[in-house]
Amino acid sequence: MNVQQKSYSRAKADGTLDLLGDAEFLEAYAATAKLLGTCFAYSPKEEASMRALAAIRSMDVASDWPFDAEAEEGTTGETSMRAQAASLIEDGLSEDEASLAQEYQRLFVGPGHLAAAPWGSVYLDRDKVLYGCSWVELRAWMREHDVVVKYDEHVPEDQIGRILVLSAEVALQKRELLPELLGNHMLPWAGHYFNLLLADARLATYKGLAQLAHATITDVQMLLGITPANRRLYR
């Protein structure tokens, strides 16, 4: 029987600059995580979401987005996840606000079954429920470290958009906590979630955002030397 690793670990520094002390890295992560998180946390009907999406669409993502990772085996086309995301986002430029809002509702809100449920506890809790044990653990961690981010209180903190925005704030305000937040509370489930979102999304825009977010967290995990907590996924 495999014993699950209850907490993340981090590779020891080998003499290279620890990126937690690199302001440029932290600012780049915070900016990208906030843009992506805002797109996932709010409907395109909300001004903040449309501004974030417009900012991403205005970029040359394939060359200017600061994080990248190799595409997973079995995918076709570009070998870079960032390049794949850039192509999808470009394909989605013709998708209008009404279509995007309808797709957001289907992917992130419902009603009905969500093939890619955007809440961590749906994957990490044995009962596959909102506000499950992993959400309780995240809330306790936030209280312990006095981490406060303003949100709509009706949305769990482990909603993918919220936790990305949370990680952006932590990167800027409490950088020493970033590996723990990522390693214990986001990375154990987020990569799996982004694969599900990529498969379920019908519009190129959300496929591209899913791939771009996956590339970003994969690269940051590698750069910070994080081995995520080994958590069983129940979905």
TrEMBL record:
Record keyword Acetylation present: no
UniProt keyword annotation of Chaperone present: yes
Transmembrane residues, as ranges?
none
- One family name in Pfam for this protein: Nitrate_red_del
Keyword annotations: Chaperone
Q: Which domain of life is it from?
A: Bacteria
- Family matches, as InterPro entries: DmsD-type, DMSO/NO3_reduct_chaperone, TorD-like_sf, TorD/DmsD_chaperones
Query: What protein does this entry describe?
Result: Tat proofreading chaperone DmsD
